[in-house]
Amino acid sequence: MSAVVARPPSGCDAPPILRERGQREVFCGLTGIVWLHRRIQDAFFLVVGSRTCAHLLQSAAGVMIFAEPRFATAIIEERDLAGRADMDDELDRVVGRLLERRPDIRMLFLVGSCPSEVIKLDLSRAAARLTRQFLPQTRVLSYSGSGIETTFTQGEDACLASLVPELPGSDAKQLLVAGALPDAVEAEFAGLFAQAGVGPVRFLPPRRATELPAVGPGTTLILAQPFLTETTRLLEGRGARLVTAPFPIGAEGTTLWLQAAALAMGADAARVEAAMAPGIARAKAGVARHRPMLEGRRIFFFPDSQLEIPLARFLSRELGMELVEVGTPYLNRQHLAGEFELLPSNTQISEGQDVDRQLDRCRAAAPDLVVCGLGLANPLEAEGLATKWSIELLFSPIHGFEQAGDLAGLFTRPLRRRAVLEV
């Protein structure tokens, strides 16, 4: 059987979940480099992979030929696969040339791919060896972005998990926000926490590899992204205490997220409300402009980014959309407990993927809008369905009050385009 209906543990308000195991249609974890390399400004991501890996990153990032990106691919050639070259010597040579050319690199990630996983290349051992060679100028870490091991956003989880053992220890009271955010969103959250009297506040990943946050028993942890399962486990192992809340997407989600973090830090509730009030008003006004086009429309989510459930909650509650099916690659019920409570009780949630079955259900439902990966978007558009690329939701600032109206606009845009084309 490729699908079973699973009921959540007692006490969870999630509706029955359709679990599917079959053919998947999703990007690999290498894709996370596209937003991570923009975030950690003195880090470099070196993929140990094939020419296909290089083409994926180049096309996904849209890097121009004269740009100086902070990622590259060490291409595994036929001689490497045939065993005619010493892979450790080859990797050392490539890393040495890279760091000689780019002395500004303070942290180098060796990123595993499908080819490096298949030939059992031990990147963790290579990272330890290269760290001994290049410290204190550069620390070398490793993680897997292989499609065998990870999907799409799990690449970020694997990257941040590799950072946790490097974080200094501290017993001091602090709030740690985990999850890569655009600089503008981080600045918004930092400002709101400061106005609410919450501090100190640190972010993981930091903007610079030399500014890693500390962690310990005094750390209150809140997630900005729902896909950080392994990172959270490791941070809790270092003593951090996790606070769960709906994710900061839309006016409602951002309000509940900020409240949960601030109150866990002992902030005054009235001061928190006052700090959020202007942002809430702007977010609601921005969202309201898009509600007339989206209200009553039916939307179908294919599993891709793990953002599907927070986005579905936002679209349902703040924009009046009807949720046909909300598919997500993996469900962490603890992290999403607050989201489940806000979804309509009849929401069909599916975990995992059997792409042929899901395509059949989508075609039968004929929704007004389909959120899916690039591999499905063009075929569905050719069949007459309007689509939204889920990857765009990772490349765009979507968290916080100031982005709520723009986020709603990402979903009205394909409907407006279709309306123009049909005229």
Quick take:
With about 425 residues, this protein is of the alpha/beta class.
Which terms summarize this structure?
Rossmann fold; 15 strands; globular; alpha/beta; 17% strand; 423 residues; 3 domains; 18 helices; disordered N terminus
Largest sheet: 7 strands, mixed
Q: What structural category do the secondary elements indicate? A: alpha/beta
* Residue share in helix: 40-55%
Low-confidence stretches: 1-12
The CATH homologous superfamily of the largest domain is called Nitrogenase molybdenum iron protein domain
The total count of strands amounts to: 15
CATH architecture descriptor of the largest domain: 3-Layer(aba) Sandwich
For the record, the CATH class of the largest domain is Alpha Beta
Shape: globular
Oligomer: single chain
Structure characterization notes:
By secondary structure, this protein is α/β, with parallel strands linked by helices. It has three domains: 3-25 and 288-422, Rossmann fold, CATH 3.40.50; 29-150, 3-Layer(aba) Sandwich (Rossmann fold), CATH 3.40.50; 174-286, Rossmann fold. The chain contains 18 helices and 15 strands. The strands form three sheets. It has a seven-stranded mixed β-sheet with strand order 1-2-13-12-11-14-15, sandwiched between helices. It has a four-stranded parallel β-sheet with strand order 4-3-5-6. The termini are far apart. The model is unreliable at 1-12 (pLDDT under 50).
